[in-house]
User: Which sequence fits this backbone?
């Protein structure tokens, strides 16, 4: 903007004296008003018009409304229009994604069912957040969820690292078909596995396999369901580590496995972080197996889904929406936190150029 | 400090044979360079010694141990890589001490050894730098420190200077030689740069197409190459070769005739042979006095001259087809490359006469194997005996 004005301004200097006298005569009263009410943009156009020596142009300019003047300014500066479109689009997505959370908050702090889009401060009751922990063993459910997600993530990362090493760094016959097979499995509907697994875990196949209501009943299916994605991510990352580094580690005294965990994995930190975060979130958010592989009690290793369903019956004679909403908000927090922290890590890892060699 | 022996080592990849029946005996404390053109199998040989690949056949011994089936970490070796291969996520100290920490040395001992190694490569005071904060030469020195800190029995260096700029390469070359004197360890060095091979090694092993051509001291390879490949590979610019046949007591080709005594040589009249002579053993007639045993003058035309400062390379054409052989350099039968001193009066297009120093010429048979180094005339029968005893000291 300022640039425009400068160049115009310089051109103007010589002309201005001539034209100004004409222009001021005709518009003396109005010009003052405009300069007060409009921003620098309109000033520029004002001047630009005068430069052309069209003193009469100033009149037409003043008849325009705010919107018209803005549109006029975007013609001389198209970037302004793009910026505006960007803000509008962003605002739209922010509102549509954030509103449900906002509404959840409103529901959580409203007693009874007297919901208002903007609840008055006097009506806000944060007691429901306390209720969540009082009515049921919510902390235990949280622990269950975090425990399952953490164990699954570690398991997936370790196994996917081995698979990623093999697929990314070794040449062997059948590598491509095997990769495709893993990819195919990752597209199977999880529900297809449920019945056989349920039969297996409840001891109907082998009486000594009784995993129902234990972490195993959840961790095993989670691991296999979310493994393929991690394998793909890690295969790509491990494949990019120069052979020389692995050779160097092996000559220095590691085994192949040692080279993987001491050199290749640390150098692929962004990839490992990505795979880990995605797995963690996927497990934490998983509903299907979480709901069906346990009886839903806190001591049955039911994750947070079970807790939220229990909260439905927190009040004896009514459906306690406010407590459920409060529980949901608490349940969302760990993942939000993780994403905020990990996002920064992942981005910093990707931009530091740690792999340049 | 150990002897390294390769016994019939062969490495095949699917249908490609990278190394074939390699026998190599590297003495304790020796600086041996594996040299050869790209794809000659020198890196594969190195990897076989390091244990990064297992040979298809044959055995590798380090010291008195058969290490063929041992992983790299148990072989008592350390290695410097062409792409340097410092661990980018570790600082200099961690890089150098990596191997020691894996072997669970005491902290004090690690500190002491890292300090010592850093001092040898003149990198002390930079131990907390990260690899990406250092120049190429500094990184290479850290890589060398990482290799020497474990005090291995054998050092392997796989083109360690290839990625450095020309000036740094020369100074690192002298540093490596100094290092070898200080450490007195067996060093096996791989390069395709024959200047490095010539200047640094006690002996060089010339490889071509997976086969060992010659394993001898640099000057022996230079003066008494076992075959045409070694003769052409060692020395820059390369040796002149002219194909022809033996006629009685002389070598004869379309453009060059050299009379010499064939007595004592295992040759027949009419054998097809290659005559080889290095550019510095060709003289213009006027200054031919420098040659120990000059031939009769040969007529030639100067095609192109390349002044190098300390000498001038003169491309001679023996036929009248000047310019026809574009791109052939000194390789054709009618081409001859001569090096003269920079104060020579020879000019492009001149018709001159040159002599060849017979005592520095070589003969190779049709298969490329050397027949003799240094031709003799009947006038001096004494030197004939010398020439035949000098040949192929460590030829294998």
Assistant:
């Amino acid at each position: 903007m300022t640039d425009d004005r400068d160049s115009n301004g310089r051109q103007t200097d010589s002309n201005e004296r001539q034209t100004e006298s004409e222009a001021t005569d005709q518009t003396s009263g109005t010009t003052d008003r405009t300069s007060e009410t409009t921003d620098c943009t309109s000033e520029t156009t004002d001047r630009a018009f005068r430069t052309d020596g069209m003193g009469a142009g100033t009149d037409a300019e003043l008849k325009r409304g705010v919107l018209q003047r803005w549109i006029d300014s975007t013609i001389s500066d198209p970037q302004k229009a793009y910026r505006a479109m960007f803000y509008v689009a962003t605002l739209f997505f922010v509102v549509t994604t954030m509103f449900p959370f906002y509404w959840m908050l409103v529901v959580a702090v409203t007693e009874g069912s007297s919901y208002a889009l903007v609840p008055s401060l006097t009506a806000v009751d944060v007691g429901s957040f306390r209720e969540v922990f009082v009515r049921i063993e919510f902390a235990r459910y949280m622990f269950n969820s975090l425990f399952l997600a953490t164990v699954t993530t570690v398991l997936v990362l370790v196994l996917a690292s081995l698979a990623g090493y093999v697929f990314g760094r070794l040449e062997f016959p059948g590598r491509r078909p095997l990769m495709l097979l893993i990819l195919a499995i990752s597209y199977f509907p999880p529900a297809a596995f449920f019945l056989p697994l349920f039969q297996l875990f409840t001891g109907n196949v082998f009486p000594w396999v009784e995993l129902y209501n234990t972490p195993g009943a959840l961790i095993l299916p989670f691991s296999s369901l979310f493994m393929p994605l991690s394998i793909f991510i890690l295969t790509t990352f491990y494949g990019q580590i120069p052979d020389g580094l692995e050779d160097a580690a092996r000559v220095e005294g590691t085994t192949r496995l040692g080279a993987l965990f001491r050199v290749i994995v640390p150098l692929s930190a962004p990839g490992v972080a990505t795979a880990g975060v995605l797995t963690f979130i996927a497990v934490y958010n998983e509903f299907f197996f979480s709901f069906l592989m346990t009886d839903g009690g806190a001591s049955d290793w039911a994750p947070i889904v079970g807790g939220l369903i229990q909260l439905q019956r927190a009040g004896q004679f009514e459906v306690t929406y406010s407590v459920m909403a409060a529980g949901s908000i608490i349940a969302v927090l760990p993942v939000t936190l993780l994403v905020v922290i990990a996002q920064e890590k992942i981005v910093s890892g990707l931009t530091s150029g740690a792999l340049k060699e | 400090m150990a002897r390294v022996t390769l016994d019939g080592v062969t490495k095949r990849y699917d249908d490609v044979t990278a190394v074939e029946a390699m026998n190599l005996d590297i003495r304790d404390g020796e600086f041996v360079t594996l040299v050869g053109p790209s794809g000659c199998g020198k890196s594969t040989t190195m990897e076989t010694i390091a244990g990064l690949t297992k040979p298809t056949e044959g055995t590798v011994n380090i010291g008195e141990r058969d290490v063929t089936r041992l992983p790299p970490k148990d072989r008592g070796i350390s290695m410097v890589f062409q792409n340097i291969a410092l661990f980018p996520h570790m600082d200099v100290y961690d890089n150098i001490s990596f191997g020691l920490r894996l072997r669970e040395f005491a902290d004090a001992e690690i500190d002491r050894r890292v300090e010592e190694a850093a001092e040898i490569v003149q990198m002390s005071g930079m131990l907390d730098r990260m690899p990406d904060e250092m120049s190429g030469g500094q990184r290479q020195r850290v890589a060398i420190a990482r290799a020497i800190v474990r005090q291995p029995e054998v050092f392997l260096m796989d083109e360690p200077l290839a990625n450095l700029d020309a000036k740094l390469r020369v100074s690192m070359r002298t540093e490596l030689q100094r290092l070898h004197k200080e450490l007195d360890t067996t060093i096996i060095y791989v390069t395709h740069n024959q200047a490095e091979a010539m200047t640094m090694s006690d002996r060089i092993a010339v490889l071509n197409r997976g086969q060992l051509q010659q394993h001898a001291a640099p000057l022996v390879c230079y003066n008494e190459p076992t075959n045409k490949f070694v003769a052409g590979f060692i020395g820059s610019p390369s040796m002149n070769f002219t194909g022809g046949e033996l006629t009685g007591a002389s070598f004869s080709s379309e453009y060059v005739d050299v009379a010499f005594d064939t007595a004592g040589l295992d040759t027949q009249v009419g054998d097809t042979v290659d005559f080889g002579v290095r550019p510095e053993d060709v003289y213009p007639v006027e200054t031919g006095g420098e040659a120990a045993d000059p031939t009769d003058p040969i007529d030639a035309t100067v095609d192109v001259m390349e002044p190098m400062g300390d000498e001038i390379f003169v491309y001679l054409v023996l036929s009248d087809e000047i310019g026809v052989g574009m791109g052939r350099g000194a390789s054709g039968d009618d081409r001859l490359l001569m090096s003269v001193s920079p104060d020579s009066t020879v000019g492009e297009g001149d018709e001159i006469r040159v002599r060849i120093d017979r005592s520095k010429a070589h003969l190779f048979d049709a298969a490329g194997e050397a027949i003799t180094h240094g031709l003799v005339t009947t006038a001096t029968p004494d030197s004939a005996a010398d020439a035949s005893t000098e040949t192929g000291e460590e030829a294998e």
Q: What stands out?
A: Chain A has three domains: 2-76, 79-125, 134-351. The first helix of chain A runs from residue 2 to 37. Residues 270 and 349 of chain A are 5 Å apart (CA to CA).
